[in-house]
């Protein structure tokens, strides 16, 4: 029968083995580490030691990052990708997170203005946090239409159109959106449950082709 020290060593090896499988630059939660017959606290202690050793970074409570090493900055660690962290937060908290319309419009080439802050719409609570030294704001919304297809370019298009508003979304804007989406993504957008003026704008753009 194994003693406590042997069990602890086995668990540590198991945790490290799973961490080795994660690619550098990967973001994960404590729930992604599965070790039979071990408690969450035991796994957390193992991960905390790896953080102390510089093998991992703790991004947020329960969220970790396996550092990617820069080839150009003398072996320095590259900060975690904010978008990857957002995706993990979304899954961890079971919330839908959509990029704010101002940033979405910029991403789709509809605006040259670069937002000063990272802002996201969320089905979760309104809050702010720091990720990789960047202040990120989450703004709660009950608008299910706005949160459709989050994390996709169709979702970006919905957020951008909502931000620009009825008076600015014309055929030129729709053409620009279409140029940034694949045919399949644009079909997804057309089938989305949108407010009436967005549906009309999309239909008018197609009728004018």
Describe this structure in words.
A 4-stranded mixed beta sheet has the order 6-7-9-8. A 3-stranded antiparallel beta sheet has the order 1-3-2, sandwiched between helices. The protein has a two-stranded antiparallel sheet with strand order 4-5. The chain has 2 domains: 4-78, Winged helix-like DNA-binding domain superfamily/Winged helix DNA-binding domain (Arc Repressor Mutant, subunit A), CATH 1.10.10; 82-207, no CATH class. A hairpin with a 7-residue loop joins strand 4 (68-69) and strand 5. The chain is built from 8 helices and 9 strands. 44% of the residues lie in helices and 16% in strands.
Strand order of the largest sheet: 6-7-9-8
Q: Give me the secondary-structure category.
A: alpha+beta
Percent of sequence in beta strands:
15-25%
Sheet having the most strands? 4 strands, mixed
Question: Which runs of at least 5 residues are low in confidence (pLDDT < 50)?
Answer: none
Number of strands: 9
Looking at the structure, what is the overall shape? Answer: elongated
The percentage helix is 40-55%
Q: Mean pLDDT score, rounded?
A: 91
SSE order, one letter for each helix or strand: HEHEEEEHEHEEEHHHH
The end-to-end span amounts to 75 Å
Total number of distinct structural domains: 2
Radius of gyration in whole Å, from Cα?
Answer: 22 Å
| Count of alpha and pi helical runs | 8
């Amino acid at each position: 029968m194994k003693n406590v020290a042997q069990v602890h060593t086995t668990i540590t090896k198991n945790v490290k083995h799973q961490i080795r499988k994660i690619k550098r630059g990967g973001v994960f939660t404590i729930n992604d580490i599965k070790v039979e017959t071990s408690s969450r606290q035991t796994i957390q202690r193992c991960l905390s030691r790896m953080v102390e050793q510089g093998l991992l970074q703790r991004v947020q409570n329960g969220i970790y990052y396996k550092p990617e090493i820069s080839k150009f900055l003398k072996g320095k660690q590259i900060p975690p990708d904010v978008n990857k962290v957002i995706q993990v937060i979304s899954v961890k908290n079971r919330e839908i997170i959509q990029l704010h319309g101002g940033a979405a419009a910029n991403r789709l080439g509809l605006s040259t203005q670069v937002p000063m802050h990272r802002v996201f719409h969320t089905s979760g609570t309104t809050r702010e946090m720091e990720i990789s030294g960047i202040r990120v704001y989450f703004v709660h919304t009950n608008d299910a239409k706005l949160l459709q297809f989050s994390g996709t370019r169709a979702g970006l298009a919905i957020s951008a159109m909502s931000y620009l508003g009825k008076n600015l979304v014309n055929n030129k804007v729709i053409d620009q959106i279409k140029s940034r989406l694949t045919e399949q993504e644009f079909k997804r957008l057309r089938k989305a449950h949108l407010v009436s003026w967005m549906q009309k704008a999309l239909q008018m753009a197609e009728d004018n082709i």
